[in-house]
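Do me a favour: review this protein, sequence plus structure tokens, and tell me how the chain folds. Record follows.
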Amino acid sequence: MTDIEQLHQWIDASNNIVFFGGAGVSTESNIPDFRSDNGLYKKQYRYPAEQMISHSFFLSNPEEFYEFYFNQMIFPDAQPNAAHKALAKLEKMGKLKAIVTQNIDGLHQKAGSKVVYELHGSVLKNTCMHCHAHYDLEQTIAARDEKGIPRCPKCGNIIKPNVVLYEEGLDEGTIYAAVDAIEKADLLIVGGTSLVVYPAAGLIRYFRGKHLVLINRDATPMDDQADLVIHDSIGKVLSNAI
């Protein structure tokens, strides 16, 4: 039996699947990840990328923050790939109960998935820091001033993306919902993540179900604890396993 056949068998036998995903899920939609050889962290900027997407840098250098953010982290034309579509199909079949994602691109919802816990927020949701008015991505892009900083049309203050920056905590409600889903799952499929970003990566330790499956092009620190490890394209694996 091949690995994909084994995964298909487990999916077929399961009625409570949770998918936990990272940047590798969206690289097949031409959205770069952070840590690979071609990732954001390997590019040369005036400041380290990690610094530019920190809360303190956002507050002290909003112009440079937004120049980096809009040029390197926003991909409005990106479309769901085979992995996103396969997961949406699994949800429609009644097998997939939740997606827990570290991604901020909203592609799971664009593919049709309904239950998506976005640990690191979403670029599609933005809020004025003063009056708390909400704006979608198109409205936020259109609200940029001459320095490229999006400003609230209602009060003139800065619009901040609902994305978790470095130095900021994850949303507690999202974490609790994600942990609850993982604890109840009988099959946990982890894909497209190096499992080195905490606290997000630590959530899979709450899994108590039958089978843990890891799908990632590179090895992860959790490979030796999984029931099945597949080093291949996540879109190809999921499409062929359903």
The two ends are 16 Å apart (CA to CA).
